[in-house]
Write a structure and sequence with these properties.
It is found in: Bacterial flagellum. Residues 212-294 form the Flagellin C-terminal domain. The chain folds into 2 domains: 1-31 and 260-295; 53-253, f41 fragment of flagellin, N-terminal domain. The protein is 71% helix and 4% strand. It is built from 8 helices and 4 strands. The chain has helices spanning 5-32, 43-98, 104-125, 176-180, 188-200, 204-257, 261-286, 290-294, and strands spanning 128-129, 132-133, 161-165, 168-171. The strands form 2 sheets. The chain has a two-stranded antiparallel sheet. A two-stranded antiparallel ribbon has the order 3-4. Helix 3 runs antiparallel to helix 5. It starts with a helix and ends with a helix. The model has no long low-confidence stretch (mean pLDDT 83).
Length: 295
């Protein structure tokens, strides 16, 4: 086949265009850090990239849930410390009041502090996290207790849980009755109410009997506290697991979509050399005239 000058010129232009397209692609990859800027770059890779992106987005939600659960339980852990301190103080005061050397007036002074401790315990029971009440089951918009009626008030029995994987949800909340005792029994609030009444009436027998009830309440606090600790550990384990899974997903996504910068820079430099060579060669070819062939 006879190769004409026009054909040579056209081939040269096509080659230069391919080189420029390759350089433009390499420059875009360096600018974006991504190997795939449009589906046609790698149709199979795009499918993997979309799947990894979806998995990472869903994983972020689960990680956020695990972190939220941990923060809520840390708040509850601190509240249990406060509640435990309240009952320790109540026990110390009860031991003092049970002493036969105390008179009625001194016991009334202790009663005033016991009433303050009861109000503090109600405040703890009405604690919130981000505006949501912690100890009222699923009724997180309603305070579970009042100062006047806490001893007989029931809390919502529902459980607030958070998903930490597509099929796993972990309970976060504990009801007030799980912590402070059931309504209508010798729960923490009733024990303090009865103790204050006994102190006001100078009933030493009832005062002494309150010691055992205070210890029972404290034991209930310890059980609730242990459950909170167990849940904290579970959320921590799930958080570590999700973080590890995300690391693997990001690595797999990077293998599909992220640019190997040194390789792309080297490829771009090579294309620049090829372009310069092509331009130089093309300039010589295009300057050839009919007289050159007749010499």
């Amino acid at each position: 086949m006879r190769v004409t000058g026009a054909m040579q010129n056209m081939q040269l232009v096509n080659n230069l265009q391919r080189i420029n397209e390759g350089m433009t692609k390499a420059q875009n990859q360096l600018a974006t850090g991504q190997k795939i800027t449009k589906p046609s770059d790698d149709p199979i890779g795009v499918g993997y990239q979309m799947r990894y992106d979806t998995d990472l987005a869903r994983s972020d939600e689960f990680l956020n849930n695990a972190q939220t659960g941990s923060e809520i339980l840390k708040t509850m852990d601190a509240l249990m410390q406060q509640a435990s301190d309240v009952m320790k103080r109540a026990r110390t005061l009860t031991l003092q009041a049970a002493n036969g050397t105390y008179d009625a007036e001194q016991r009334k002074v202790i009663s005033a502090e016991i009433k303050q401790l009861k109000e503090q315990l109600v405040t703890i029971g009405n604690s919130t996290y981000n505006g949501r009440y912690l100890f009222n089951g699923q009724k997180t918009d309603q305070a579970p207790y009042t100062v006047a009626g806490a001893a007989g008030e029931s809390t919502d029995p529902g459980t607030f849980s958070l998903y930490v994987s597509p099929a796993v949800k972990v309970p976060v909340s504990l009801t007030g009755e799980d912590i402070f005792g059931k309504a209508g029994t010798d729960n923490a609030f009733k024990v303090l109410d009865d103790l204050a009444t006994a102190l006001d009436s100078n009933d030493t027998t009832a005062i002494s009997a309150s010691l055992g009830k205070i210890d029972t309440v404290a034991d209930g606090f310890s059980l609730g506290w242990a459950e909170i600790g167990a849940r904290m550990n579970r959320f921590e384990l799930m958080e570590n697991r999700i973080t590890s899974e995300q690391t693997n997903l990001k690595e797999m996504r990077a293998n599909v979509a992220d640019v190997d910068v040194p390789t792309v820079i080297t490829d771009l430099k090579m294309k620049e050399v090829v372009l310069q060579s092509a331009l130089s060669t093309g300039a010589r070819i295009m300057q050839t005239s009919l007289l050159d062939f007749l010499r």
